[in-house]
Amino acid sequence: MKRLIFVNGTMGAGKTATCRELKKLLPPCAFLDGDWCWDMEPFQVTEETKAMVQENIAFLLGQFLRCPAYETVIFCWVMHQEAIIQELLSRLDTRGVQVRVFTLLPSPAALEAHIQKDVAAGLRVPADYQRSLERLPLYQAMDTEKILTDGLTPAQAARAIAKKLEEETT
Fold first, then answer.
1. pLDDT at 169
2. Residue 99: which of 127, 155, 138, 61 has the closest Cα?
3. How many CA atoms are closer than 13 Å to the CA of 26, on its beta-carbon side?
4. Closest by alpha carbon to 103, among 160, 168, 26, 59?
């Protein structure tokens, strides 16, 4: 049975780094970061760009799911509302696919440390922390499997997800 694993969390939660590690634990595997479908200059959030990005994501996920070379497909993105997840799933043929949704949850202090590290590296701006912090409660309220990430490296968070996946199959 194929698996589709969604990993969400607020900006700076460590989704990409965790999924890169998770990919190593779950071969044969494909990984798609939703941000790769949203990388444009200038960055514009409009109804048209949001629709295009979701269509691109659904297309790529569908291609990975249909390809017999992969047993597991991992997708991460800032999905702060369950409606975003449901919209993407509605575009996919998930018959015979186990779908799991995990949320990476850092504490506000850990989130600030992650974002400050990215600011120092030139990857984010200081205002990103406040926007990310404001969305943190939305993730806590979602009906997903939570991974508390404080004190965890991305590799450890990935192992925590892999362990939950293994527990389900045993």
1. 62
2. 61
3. 28
4. 160
Name, in order, each residue with C-beta under 8 angstroms of 93's C-beta and a sequence gap of 6 or more.
62, 65, 66
pLDDT at 43: 84
170 touches 31 (CB < 8 A): no
Residues 37, 128, 59: CA angle, nearest 5 degrees: 15
Q: Which of 148, 134, 140, 161 is nearest to 76 (CA)?
A: 161
Q: Tokens 């200059």: give the residue.
A: 41
- State yes or no: cis peptide before 28, omega within 30 of 0: yes
Q: Which tokens sit at 156? A: 């450890």
Mean per-residue pLDDT for 38-67?
Answer: 93
Average pLDDT, the chain: 94
Does the pLDDT of residue 170 top 70, yes or no?
A: no
**Strands 97-105 and 2-8, bridge-based pairing:** parallel
pTM of this prediction?
0.94
Interhelix angle 47-66/82-90, rounded to 10 degrees, is: 50
